[in-house]
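Appendix B, example 12.
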Amino acid sequence: MGENTIIEQLKLLNHLMEYGRKDVVKGEQLTQSQCYILRYLFMKGEKELCATDIHMVLGISKASISTLLKGLKQEGYLTMISDPEDDRKKQIRLTKKAYEMEERIDYGFAQMQEMMLKGISQNDRMVLERCLKQMSKNLKEE
């Protein structure tokens, strides 16, 4: 087994999630990454957020966040309102169209997760989740 096997498998898994299965929500023009951003915003509810907040929590580059948010805005899933205290910041607000998709997005991610975990025991799933969390923590501490 090569030294980079875990890294290679994580990259492959990420690629398959992003490009191999674009239809998290069937019939919609949303990428997996856009759905991921929307899920995060749903989770935060009415809390006012800006792109920097999302970047800091999710660890996605500022440029990628900007592109994803721009696409979601163009498709009518969110609006961006200038922050009265800082013109450089835009407060992100979900639209009715976004909230109408929440259940479908959650269902799509649940299906994807079940597909990925097929054949993996509940105990192994718990170990996997614990290991992935520790790996993320390790990299954030560096």
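Residues 23 and 30 are 8 Å apart (CA to CA). The domain at 5-106 is CATH 1.10.10.10 (Arc Repressor Mutant, subunit A).
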